[in-house]
Specification:
By secondary structure, the protein is an alpha/beta fold. The chain is built from 15 helices and ten strands.
Length: about 375
């Protein structure tokens, strides 16, 4: 029992860190406003964020968007807005700019409408359209040992009930990013020889490894067989958390805990792979083939949770800056009120909604 507890703590050590409140951002202001064209209740960290939700036509809100109209929607821009205002102001700016894009608006509206209408009893029957597809799941960090959703267990059970063909690709749970990307590429190439209609679904660290596989390690025959990719909370640029824990003192204590628990991990290599500082060039070079219909599902929170500053300077899901968790040409779907773990929601319903929309778009192509 003690050993299991330590393993869980080590996992938290590797991908979390303590919080220091951002000056002036912990106001925790209740608000009833509108988001994505729907009534929305939350708490925010700044009065201006409240205005953005309750009166988006206010001159001050319009001025903010006008001032940043020509700026690229990236982490640098969002960091600047965060520094001038707060995390929540930058987050709402980010969400509004995404929702302005027609294709993002369509999929977000469909996603929310279907979640509202779909009952738990309907989920398996609603997947009948997937009979013509093969689903390849790419799991997350330490998926073999910790039941955090990174192994897609609930989704696989749903697919079993619906009779949908799938495979959980056997990457190394604590393996190096490059090695896992090769494993994914090799397996996708083999699967493409037997399946002409594949959908790849990845999560967390598996998103980076999948992006590397799709962006350069697989051949065109494989690409033509992969119709879509759902990137759930992908840590595409690495995480600033890894840079914090890569410091010698921090790394020493993690290494001691791993040794005591008999967990074999190339800690230095893993932290290097997941370094946000060192991941910029790799991120900029990621080019997902346009033939693959790509959807990014991100978790976004507002209020007291988002108002805490750790190693982050811009809106984030607790592991990745939000702007770095999406692919360049992919659609973006937002799940509000959550962090990187997507806890306390029925993710099966969300997956059914996304797959329905993707199938409709693939039919129209």
């Amino acid at each position: 029992m003690l050993k299991k507890s330590l393993i869980i703590k080590i996992h938290i050590f590797l991908f979390s860190c303590g919080c220091i409140c951002h000056p002036g951002s912990a106001q925790n202001i209740p608000v009833e406003g509108t988001l994505f064209g729907r009534p929305f209740q939350t708490k925010v960290d700044h009065e201006f964020a409240k205005t953005m939700l309750t009166n988006p036509a206010d001159s001050s809100v319009m001025r903010l968007f006008a001032n940043y109209e020509s700026r690229i929607l990236n982490t640098e821009t969002l960091s600047e807005i965060t520094d001038h205002f707060s995390f929540d102001v930058a987050t709402l700016f980010f969400l509004e700019k995404l929702y302005e894009q027609e294709e993002n608006r369509k999929i977000q509206d469909f996603y929310l409408d279907m979640i509202d209408s779909l009952s738990l009893e309907d989920e398996a029957s609603e997947l009948s359209f997937l009979q013509d597809y093969f689903i390849a799941f790419v799991p997350g960090f330490r998926y073999e040992h910790i039941n955090n959703g990174g192994n897609f267990l609930q989704q696989r059970l749903l697919f079993d009930a619906a009779g949908i063909a799938y495979e959980l690709i056997g990457i190394e749970g604590t393996g190096r990013v490059g090695r896992n990307a090769e494993i994914i590429a090799d397996r996708l190439q083999e699967l493409s020889r037997h399946h002409n209609n594949m959908i790849v679904i990845s999560v967390s660290k598996g998103g980076l490894e999948t992006a590397m596989a799709l962006g350069g390690l697989v051949d065109m025959q494989c690409i033509s067989s992969i119709k879509a990719w759902i990137n759930v909370g992908g840590i595409l640029k690495g995480t600033p958390v890894a840079d914090r824990w890569a410091k010698p003192f921090m790394r020493f204590w993690i290494a001691c805990g791993l040794f005591w628990a008999n967990i074999k991990v190339d800690l230095k290599g893993l932290l290097t792979d997941m370094s946000y500082i060192q991941g910029k060039d790799r991120y900029e070079s990621l080019r997902i083939p346009p033939e693959i219909y790509t959807v990014n599902l991100i978790a976004v929170s507002l209020g007291q949770e988002q108002a805490k500053k750790t190693v982050f300077t811009s809106p984030n899901d607790s592991f990745s800056p939000l702007a770095d968790a999406i692919t360049e040409n992919g659609l973006v779907v937002v799940e509000m009120g959550l962090d990187h773990y997507f806890r306390d929601i029925d993710l099966n319903t969300r997956m059914v909604a996304l797959l329905h929309y993707i199938n409709r778009q693939l039919i129209l192509k």
